Amino acid sequence: MLTRRRTLLATATAACAALLLATPMTTSATTPSPAETSAAAEAAHADKAIYLVHKVGTPELRSAVARTGIDVMGADGDVMSVRASEAEVRVLRAKGFEVEFRAAGEHGDHSHGDLGIADFPPADAAYHNFAEVTAELRKAEADHPGIAQLRSIGKSHENRDLWMIKISDNVATDENEPEVLFNCNQHAREHLTVEMCLRIVNRFTDGYTTDPAIKSFVDSREIWVIPSVNPDGSEYDVATGSYRSWRKNRQAPGGTDLNRNWDYNWGCCGGSSGSTSSDTYRGPSAFSAPETARLRDFVNSRVVGGKQQITANIDFHTFSELVLWPYGYTTADTGPGLTADDARTFQTLGRQMAATNNYKPQQSSDLYITDGSSIDWMWGRHKIWSYTFEMFPSSIWGGGFYPPDEVINRETSRNDRAVDLMLTYADCVPRVIGKTC
Ligand code: 0X9
Ligand code: CA
Ligand code: CA
Ligand code: CA
Ligand code: ZN
């Protein structure tokens, strides 16, 4: 970690000098040329640096920043951290925002050089790359054949399997038990979330014979876990041995933000970008990304006899330590298909979960407006009680998207009780406000 800090500072100083000498960039975040090549887009992406935007203490101000299509990393108090090109910073400053340079783009250990070794830097070896995730899931299934079943819900853009593991007693049978979905890694660089899903898998399989509470969850629920919704982006992020801060999937020309690609008020409200070079590019149409389309297909397939079997969902992200609920597209607490009782239910369970992990509970639009997010679709289309968790750290100072692997155990186990609470209420989530189902 000390080594990393030193590397980051050294890189920042060097890049600072480089920025002063650099000629103005020819690509702009707001007006991408249709002919822009992937290579140019990637070069522009790599040139971005980290800035703090000050005095953005309201959802309106934060949404105004996000609406420019800039890459928002996190928000803490009245400060947002963003990854931006010089052109993007000019746009923000022209709108009156106070923007302060912090550091060059995040980079990990450079000891690999750019050898194309598709793995985490040695210092972060405990994080699982795609091959290691695959092996871990195969092992869980092999070790616990009665309660764990691995399958693929389809392929990513680059043809990787979108793995899903089911955990339940009589796992081969579709029983009449509440179903709960945990999905991770819609955003490539949010590697800690993959570890979160793997922890859920290992806890509910390895603990089955020894822990009565685990056994009772596994026996009474059907748990679906998808550790990586975006394996292409995730592999790309670590492919050179230094982190690339990559967020989107890998569809040309510059990737699509999977969490802006869902078909519920897709692109409605300034909560996503139509520019291919933006980090919140929503794609040319809803579900244009195979990764979101396959997850959609799976969730749609759980409508059995006219009834959606999945009652609850957590979509894990990093970072900011938040528990977020729908809707993201509007700041109103209620909306079409989201009644006052629904809102109270979301708030009550959200606050209870947040009390267990010491995250901050709020409606997702209290952070900033997002449209086309998965949780809006899960609720809007399927009435699934769906939450976004933004995991550790609380701010960019805790390591941003790249906390050292030493924190994995502490920061994933931190969510055990919240996960258990969601499973507890999965038979009837409104029970949390005293209602019956
Ligand atoms: O912007 C996002 O997609 C999430 N933040 S992140 O830094 N992980 O990218 C927040 C999404 C919150 N909004 C909804 N889930 N609707
Ligand atoms: Ca380490
Ligand atoms: Ca079962
Ligand atoms: Ca079932
Ligand atoms: Zn995210």
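^ calcium ion complex. Residues 155 and 401 are 25 Å apart (CA to CA). The first helix runs from residue 2 to 21.
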